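Task card 7
Instruction: Convert sequence to C-alpha coordinates.
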Amino acid sequence: MREEENKTSQKSKSKFQRTLKKRWVLPAAYIASAAIILSGTLWYQNSVNDSADSGKSGQEEAADKKGQPAVEVNSKVENISMPVVNGEEAVIKKDFYDVNGKKEEQEAALVSYNNRFEPNKGIDVAMPDGKTFDVVASLSGTVTNVKEDSLLGNVIELEHENGVVTRYQSVKDFAVEIGQNVKQGDVLAKAGQSLINEEAGIHVHFEIRKDSVAVNPLSMMEKPVTALYELEAQPASEEKATEEQAGEESAEQGTVTEEESTEQDAVSEEESTETEQGTVTEEEPADKDAATEEEAEQPKGSTEEKGTEESKDSSTDTTDDADKKADSAEKDGSKETENNQN
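Output:
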Protein backbone atom coordinates (compact mmCIF):
# COMPACT_ATOMS: atom_id res chain seq x y z
CA MET A 1 0.00 0.00 0.00
CA ARG A 2 2.69 2.38 0.91
CA GLU A 3 4.55 1.57 -2.27
CA GLU A 4 1.44 2.38 -4.32
CA GLU A 5 0.95 5.72 -2.51
CA ASN A 6 4.56 6.64 -3.10
CA LYS A 7 4.21 5.81 -6.76
CA THR A 8 1.09 8.00 -7.14
CA SER A 9 2.72 10.95 -5.34
CA GLN A 10 5.78 10.65 -7.49
CA LYS A 11 3.64 10.57 -10.61
CA SER A 12 1.76 13.75 -9.56
CA LYS A 13 5.00 15.56 -8.77
CA SER A 14 6.47 14.55 -12.04
CA LYS A 15 3.38 15.86 -13.89
CA PHE A 16 3.50 19.23 -12.06
CA GLN A 17 7.20 19.57 -12.72
CA ARG A 18 6.68 18.75 -16.38
CA THR A 19 3.93 21.40 -16.54
CA LEU A 20 6.16 24.05 -14.99
CA LYS A 21 8.86 23.31 -17.47
CA LYS A 22 6.61 24.39 -20.30
CA ARG A 23 7.27 27.95 -21.64
CA TRP A 24 3.74 29.34 -21.44
CA VAL A 25 3.09 28.43 -17.79
CA LEU A 26 5.05 31.17 -16.02
CA PRO A 27 3.89 34.10 -18.29
CA ALA A 28 0.33 32.91 -17.91
CA ALA A 29 0.72 32.88 -14.11
CA TYR A 30 2.13 36.41 -14.12
CA ILE A 31 -0.69 37.76 -16.32
CA ALA A 32 -3.34 36.11 -14.18
CA SER A 33 -1.91 37.51 -10.96
CA ALA A 34 -1.64 41.03 -12.49
CA ALA A 35 -5.25 40.85 -13.66
CA ILE A 36 -6.39 39.84 -10.21
CA ILE A 37 -4.47 42.70 -8.54
CA LEU A 38 -5.72 45.31 -11.07
CA SER A 39 -9.33 44.24 -10.76
CA GLY A 40 -9.09 44.39 -6.99
CA THR A 41 -7.67 47.95 -7.13
CA LEU A 42 -10.39 49.20 -9.46
CA TRP A 43 -13.09 47.66 -7.32
CA TYR A 44 -11.72 49.39 -4.21
CA GLN A 45 -11.60 52.83 -5.89
CA ASN A 46 -15.16 52.53 -7.14
CA SER A 47 -16.40 51.58 -3.70
CA VAL A 48 -14.69 54.65 -2.13
CA ASN A 49 -16.17 57.05 -4.73
CA ASP A 50 -19.62 55.60 -4.25
CA SER A 51 -19.43 56.10 -0.50
CA ALA A 52 -18.25 59.75 -0.93
CA ASP A 53 -21.06 60.53 -3.37
CA SER A 54 -23.64 59.00 -1.09
CA GLY A 55 -22.36 61.07 1.84
CA LYS A 56 -22.45 64.32 -0.17
CA SER A 57 -25.92 63.71 -1.49
CA GLY A 58 -27.13 63.03 2.02
CA GLN A 59 -25.71 66.38 3.21
CA GLU A 60 -27.35 68.24 0.33
CA GLU A 61 -30.66 66.55 1.00
CA ALA A 62 -30.50 67.59 4.64
CA ALA A 63 -29.74 71.17 3.62
CA ASP A 64 -32.62 71.20 1.13
CA LYS A 65 -34.99 69.98 3.79
CA LYS A 66 -34.03 72.80 6.14
CA GLY A 67 -33.89 75.43 3.40
CA GLN A 68 -30.35 76.42 4.41
CA PRO A 69 -27.00 76.09 2.62
CA ALA A 70 -24.78 73.20 3.59
CA VAL A 71 -21.97 74.13 5.96
CA GLU A 72 -18.93 72.00 6.44
CA VAL A 73 -18.62 70.67 9.96
CA ASN A 74 -14.90 71.29 10.19
CA SER A 75 -15.00 74.84 8.72
CA LYS A 76 -14.67 77.78 11.15
CA VAL A 77 -17.75 80.03 11.27
CA GLU A 78 -16.81 83.67 11.91
CA ASN A 79 -18.72 85.97 14.21
CA ILE A 80 -19.49 89.47 12.92
CA SER A 81 -17.32 92.05 14.68
CA MET A 82 -16.96 95.83 14.81
CA PRO A 83 -14.76 97.38 12.09
CA VAL A 84 -12.27 98.61 14.73
CA VAL A 85 -9.54 96.93 16.74
CA ASN A 86 -11.03 97.78 20.14
CA GLY A 87 -14.76 97.42 19.70
CA GLU A 88 -15.45 98.08 23.38
CA GLU A 89 -13.98 101.59 23.13
CA ALA A 90 -15.95 102.50 20.02
CA VAL A 91 -18.53 105.31 20.14
CA ILE A 92 -21.61 105.27 17.92
CA LYS A 93 -22.07 108.76 16.48
CA LYS A 94 -25.22 107.94 14.48
CA ASP A 95 -27.38 104.80 14.64
CA PHE A 96 -29.00 102.77 11.90
CA TYR A 97 -32.39 104.01 10.66
CA ASP A 98 -34.85 101.35 11.83
CA VAL A 99 -38.24 101.49 10.12
CA ASN A 100 -39.80 99.84 13.17
CA GLY A 101 -38.05 102.09 15.70
CA LYS A 102 -39.38 104.99 17.72
CA LYS A 103 -39.96 108.34 16.07
CA GLU A 104 -37.26 110.04 18.14
CA GLU A 105 -34.75 107.35 17.21
CA GLN A 106 -35.69 107.62 13.55
CA GLU A 107 -35.24 111.39 13.56
CA ALA A 108 -31.83 110.97 15.22
CA ALA A 109 -30.84 108.48 12.50
CA LEU A 110 -31.47 110.90 9.64
CA VAL A 111 -28.47 112.32 7.78
CA SER A 112 -28.84 115.97 6.74
CA TYR A 113 -26.91 117.36 3.78
CA ASN A 114 -27.66 120.29 1.49
CA ASN A 115 -31.20 120.78 2.91
CA ARG A 116 -32.00 117.09 2.34
CA PHE A 117 -32.58 114.26 4.82
CA GLU A 118 -31.62 110.64 4.11
CA PRO A 119 -32.03 107.55 6.35
CA ASN A 120 -28.74 106.28 7.75
CA LYS A 121 -28.21 102.80 6.26
CA GLY A 122 -25.36 101.90 8.61
CA ILE A 123 -23.64 103.05 11.79
CA ASP A 124 -21.05 105.80 12.25
CA VAL A 125 -18.26 104.60 14.55
CA ALA A 126 -15.65 106.87 16.16
CA MET A 127 -13.24 106.93 19.08
CA PRO A 128 -13.71 108.94 22.31
CA ASP A 129 -10.58 111.03 21.69
CA GLY A 130 -11.74 112.00 18.18
CA LYS A 131 -8.49 110.85 16.58
CA THR A 132 -8.05 108.58 13.58
CA PHE A 133 -7.82 104.78 14.00
CA ASP A 134 -7.36 101.58 12.00
CA VAL A 135 -10.42 100.33 10.11
CA VAL A 136 -10.37 96.51 9.99
CA ALA A 137 -12.40 93.89 8.12
CA SER A 138 -15.50 92.78 10.01
CA LEU A 139 -15.54 89.48 8.08
CA SER A 140 -13.17 87.63 5.77
CA GLY A 141 -13.87 88.30 2.10
CA THR A 142 -12.71 89.70 -1.23
CA VAL A 143 -12.21 93.41 -1.98
CA THR A 144 -14.57 94.35 -4.83
CA ASN A 145 -14.47 98.17 -4.72
CA VAL A 146 -11.95 100.81 -3.65
CA LYS A 147 -13.18 104.28 -4.64
CA GLU A 148 -12.31 107.86 -3.79
CA ASP A 149 -15.39 109.93 -3.05
CA SER A 150 -15.26 113.33 -1.33
CA LEU A 151 -18.98 113.29 -0.48
CA LEU A 152 -18.98 109.85 1.14
CA GLY A 153 -15.38 110.11 2.33
CA ASN A 154 -14.02 107.26 0.10
CA VAL A 155 -15.49 103.74 -0.06
CA ILE A 156 -14.23 100.15 0.39
CA GLU A 157 -16.50 97.15 -0.28
CA LEU A 158 -15.92 93.50 0.65
CA GLU A 159 -17.92 90.64 -0.85
CA HIS A 160 -18.72 87.54 1.19
CA GLU A 161 -20.72 84.36 0.64
CA ASN A 162 -24.48 84.14 0.02
CA GLY A 163 -25.00 87.75 -1.12
CA VAL A 164 -23.45 89.39 1.96
CA VAL A 165 -21.51 92.64 1.39
CA THR A 166 -19.82 94.91 3.94
CA ARG A 167 -19.13 98.57 3.13
CA TYR A 168 -16.67 100.94 4.80
CA GLN A 169 -17.04 104.70 4.13
CA SER A 170 -15.29 107.83 5.40
CA VAL A 171 -11.82 106.27 5.20
CA LYS A 172 -8.38 107.32 3.97
CA ASP A 173 -4.92 105.81 3.38
CA PHE A 174 -6.12 102.66 1.61
CA ALA A 175 -4.25 99.49 2.61
CA VAL A 176 -6.01 97.10 0.16
CA GLU A 177 -6.76 96.91 -3.56
CA ILE A 178 -9.49 95.41 -5.74
CA GLY A 179 -9.33 91.61 -5.99
CA GLN A 180 -7.39 91.17 -2.76
CA ASN A 181 -8.53 88.49 -0.29
CA VAL A 182 -8.55 89.69 3.29
CA LYS A 183 -9.13 87.94 6.59
CA GLN A 184 -11.18 89.10 9.53
CA GLY A 185 -9.27 91.75 11.45
CA ASP A 186 -6.97 92.80 8.57
CA VAL A 187 -6.40 96.57 8.31
CA LEU A 188 -8.26 98.12 5.37
CA ALA A 189 -7.60 101.85 5.84
CA LYS A 190 -7.62 104.72 8.34
CA ALA A 191 -10.73 106.47 9.62
CA GLY A 192 -11.38 109.84 7.98
CA GLN A 193 -14.12 112.42 7.37
CA SER A 194 -16.96 112.92 4.89
CA LEU A 195 -18.94 115.87 3.58
CA ILE A 196 -22.28 114.12 4.03
CA ASN A 197 -21.79 113.81 7.80
CA GLU A 198 -19.32 116.47 8.89
CA GLU A 199 -20.76 116.67 12.39
CA ALA A 200 -19.51 113.13 13.11
CA GLY A 201 -15.89 114.25 12.73
CA ILE A 202 -13.30 111.50 12.21
CA HIS A 203 -15.25 108.23 11.96
CA VAL A 204 -15.99 105.21 9.78
CA HIS A 205 -19.42 104.56 8.28
CA PHE A 206 -20.03 100.79 8.40
CA GLU A 207 -22.80 98.98 6.50
CA ILE A 208 -23.88 95.33 6.16
CA ARG A 209 -26.01 94.36 3.16
CA LYS A 210 -27.78 91.10 2.40
CA ASP A 211 -28.93 90.82 -1.22
CA SER A 212 -28.43 94.62 -1.62
CA VAL A 213 -30.66 95.39 1.38
CA ALA A 214 -29.18 97.25 4.37
CA VAL A 215 -29.16 95.37 7.70
CA ASN A 216 -28.72 96.90 11.15
CA PRO A 217 -25.07 96.13 12.05
CA LEU A 218 -25.67 96.48 15.79
CA SER A 219 -28.27 93.71 15.73
CA MET A 220 -25.71 91.35 14.10
CA MET A 221 -22.68 92.04 16.30
CA GLU A 222 -21.02 88.94 17.82
CA LYS A 223 -23.44 86.69 15.93
CA PRO A 224 -22.28 84.01 13.46
CA VAL A 225 -22.30 85.00 9.82
CA THR A 226 -24.82 82.22 9.19
CA ALA A 227 -27.39 84.44 10.92
CA LEU A 228 -27.21 86.71 7.89
CA TYR A 229 -27.86 83.78 5.56
CA GLU A 230 -31.15 83.12 7.33
CA LEU A 231 -32.45 86.63 6.74
CA GLU A 232 -35.10 86.88 4.07
CA ALA A 233 -34.81 89.57 1.43
CA GLN A 234 -36.78 92.68 2.30
CA PRO A 235 -39.62 93.30 -0.18
CA ALA A 236 -39.19 96.23 -2.51
CA SER A 237 -42.48 97.74 -1.32
CA GLU A 238 -41.28 97.75 2.27
CA GLU A 239 -38.00 99.37 1.27
CA LYS A 240 -39.90 102.07 -0.64
CA ALA A 241 -42.11 102.60 2.39
CA THR A 242 -39.00 103.14 4.49
CA GLU A 243 -37.71 105.78 2.10
CA GLU A 244 -41.12 107.47 1.92
CA GLN A 245 -41.37 107.52 5.70
CA ALA A 246 -37.94 109.08 5.94
CA GLY A 247 -38.97 111.61 3.30
CA GLU A 248 -42.12 112.54 5.24
CA GLU A 249 -40.12 113.04 8.42
CA SER A 250 -37.59 115.16 6.58
CA ALA A 251 -40.46 117.20 5.05
CA GLU A 252 -41.92 117.74 8.54
CA GLN A 253 -38.57 118.91 9.81
CA GLY A 254 -38.23 121.16 6.76
CA THR A 255 -41.72 122.63 7.44
CA VAL A 256 -40.82 123.30 11.05
CA THR A 257 -37.64 124.97 9.93
CA GLU A 258 -39.54 127.13 7.44
CA GLU A 259 -42.09 128.11 10.11
CA GLU A 260 -39.32 129.02 12.49
CA SER A 261 -37.60 131.09 9.81
CA THR A 262 -40.94 132.80 8.98
CA GLU A 263 -41.47 133.65 12.62
CA GLN A 264 -37.93 134.95 12.87
CA ASP A 265 -38.47 137.09 9.76
CA ALA A 266 -41.71 138.49 11.20
CA VAL A 267 -40.00 139.33 14.48
CA SER A 268 -37.12 140.97 12.65
CA GLU A 269 -39.58 143.01 10.51
CA GLU A 270 -41.41 144.19 13.63
CA GLU A 271 -38.14 145.15 15.22
CA SER A 272 -37.06 147.03 12.10
CA THR A 273 -40.46 148.83 11.96
CA GLU A 274 -40.16 149.85 15.59
CA THR A 275 -36.63 151.01 14.97
CA GLU A 276 -37.73 153.13 11.98
CA GLN A 277 -40.61 154.66 13.95
CA GLY A 278 -38.29 155.47 16.79
CA THR A 279 -35.86 157.02 14.35
CA VAL A 280 -38.61 159.18 12.80
CA THR A 281 -39.86 160.37 16.17
CA GLU A 282 -36.33 161.16 17.16
CA GLU A 283 -35.66 163.03 13.91
CA GLU A 284 -38.77 165.28 14.21
CA PRO A 285 -37.81 166.94 17.50
CA ALA A 286 -34.27 167.09 16.24
CA ASP A 287 -35.44 169.07 13.17
CA LYS A 288 -37.47 171.40 15.35
CA ASP A 289 -34.55 172.00 17.65
CA ALA A 290 -32.30 172.69 14.67
CA ALA A 291 -34.78 175.27 13.25
CA THR A 292 -35.02 176.98 16.62
CA GLU A 293 -31.27 177.10 16.93
CA GLU A 294 -30.92 178.62 13.43
CA GLU A 295 -33.43 181.33 14.25
CA ALA A 296 -31.62 182.03 17.49
CA GLU A 297 -28.27 182.19 15.78
CA GLN A 298 -29.39 184.76 13.15
CA PRO A 299 -27.79 188.23 13.95
CA LYS A 300 -29.86 191.26 14.88
CA GLY A 301 -28.41 193.24 11.97
CA SER A 302 -30.01 190.93 9.48
CA THR A 303 -33.35 191.54 11.16
CA GLU A 304 -32.94 195.33 10.94
CA GLU A 305 -31.89 195.07 7.29
CA LYS A 306 -35.03 193.12 6.56
CA GLY A 307 -37.11 195.88 8.23
CA THR A 308 -35.39 198.66 6.22
CA GLU A 309 -35.92 196.78 2.97
CA GLU A 310 -39.57 196.32 3.79
CA SER A 311 -40.01 200.09 4.53
CA LYS A 312 -38.24 201.00 1.28
CA ASP A 313 -40.54 198.73 -0.66
CA SER A 314 -43.62 200.30 1.00
CA SER A 315 -42.44 203.91 0.27
CA THR A 316 -41.76 203.00 -3.34
CA ASP A 317 -45.24 201.62 -3.69
CA THR A 318 -46.72 204.85 -2.20
CA THR A 319 -44.79 207.10 -4.66
CA ASP A 320 -45.95 205.03 -7.58
CA ASP A 321 -49.57 205.38 -6.47
CA ALA A 322 -49.25 209.19 -6.18
CA ASP A 323 -47.74 209.49 -9.65
CA LYS A 324 -50.57 207.45 -11.11
CA LYS A 325 -53.14 209.68 -9.41
CA ALA A 326 -51.45 212.88 -10.72
CA ASP A 327 -51.36 211.58 -14.26
CA SER A 328 -55.02 210.68 -14.12
CA ALA A 329 -55.89 214.18 -12.72
CA GLU A 330 -53.97 215.92 -15.52
CA LYS A 331 -55.78 213.86 -18.11
CA ASP A 332 -59.15 214.75 -16.57
CA GLY A 333 -58.24 218.49 -16.52
CA SER A 334 -57.20 218.52 -20.18
CA LYS A 335 -60.43 216.86 -21.16
CA GLU A 336 -62.50 219.49 -19.28
CA THR A 337 -60.58 222.38 -20.98
CA GLU A 338 -61.27 220.96 -24.40
CA ASN A 339 -64.93 220.64 -23.62
CA ASN A 340 -65.15 224.28 -22.44
CA GLN A 341 -63.50 225.57 -25.61
CA ASN A 342 -65.92 223.71 -27.71
